[in-house]
Amino acid sequence: MYRFTDYYRNDVTLSFDDHPFSRDPKHVWVICRHNGKWLLTKHKERGLEFPGGKVEENETAKEAAIREVKEETGGIVESIRYVGQYIVAGKGATIIKNVYFAEIRELTLQGSYYETEGPVQLAKIPTNVKRNMQYSFIMKDDVLKHCMKFIGKQRKRN
Ligand code: GTP
């Protein structure tokens, strides 16, 4: 379990256990890889981030993850696995978010990328994300660092 504060000084708790905070989280975030690169999206207001969003009614969190990747990047998920879960205790709402790791088979052209400008592929996530204006606040807390480390270990094992 990791505890830290986010860009807005909200308390964040992250765990790599199996759904420690909720079996039924309402938010998802998907760390994506395609063709040997990281696949992000450029949110029109927030900037660069891994795709994600809210779980809709009548959909599982994993289904939401697959849908959000397609909507925000055009990416078709080849494989996806649960990584961990985090809870953000905000000033108003408290949100619980599942993190997934997905391999993307192909990028399809979308008519709309919703609130984003679509896919952005990066060979490397820069080390200065926290100070980099191009990046979304979602990328600016230690969820990113811990999840990238966890995924790196898993990928080495496989
Ligand atoms: P909509 O306008 O309905 O999309 O919702 P919202 O803007 O109120 O945001 P949402 O319900 O998604 O999240 C509520 C608050 O939780 C946000 O304002 C953020 O402060 C925080 N939050 C959401 N997702 C994340 C995240 O991935 N990381 C961190 N640190 N905070 C988040």
UniProtKB/TrEMBL annotation:
Arranged from A to Z, the UniProt key words for this protein are: Hydrolase, Magnesium, Metal-binding
Recorded GO cellular component terms are: cytoplasm
* GO molecular function annotations of the record: hydrolase activity, acting on acid anhydrides, in phosphorus-containing anhydrides; metal ion binding
| PROSITE patterns found in the cross-reference section | NUDIX (PS51462), NUDIX_BOX (PS00893)
Q: Name one Pfam family in it.
A: NUDIX
| This protein's record includes keyword Hydrolase | yes
Q: Which residues form the Nudix hydrolase domain?
A: 6-158
Q: Which family does it belong to?
A: Belongs to the Nudix hydrolase family.
Name used for this protein in its record = Nucleoside triphosphatase YtkD
Biological source species? Lentibacillus salicampi
Classification from the root reads: Bacteria, Bacillati, Bacillota, Bacilli, Bacillales
What gene is behind this protein? Answer: ytkD
